[in-house]
Amino acid sequence: MLQIILGINQQHRAWGHVRIAGNRLAQGIVATIGFAIAGVPAALLLGVATALLSLIPIGPPLIWGGAAAWLFYQGTVGWGIFMLLWGFFLDQQRGQCGETHADQPRQQLAVYPGFVRC
Known about the structure:
The protein contains 4 helices and 2 strands; from the N terminus they run ααααββ. It is mainly alpha-helical. It starts with a helix and ends with a strand.
């Protein structure tokens, strides 16, 4: 009986790691799409860096914040604002969704008027 319980616990932890890795990959893909739309050079490289640095909370904002600063410096203020909004609302929130509930597989998802809780 104990072996069954330990096996289930290990399987649960393994799926938790898969979900976290999948979430990091998705965060990198979303960031890459944003970089490409904004015309940032080396969008794929920056997307990979975003996925790798998403293991630490401040990692992705350093990448897309730096890209936004570069866009502002280049004089493309509209694309800089786009990059900040894309990074905050899509990329960063994507990371928060996976982080918060990765170890709670059967948690009910609450829907509030105008907001969706990940």
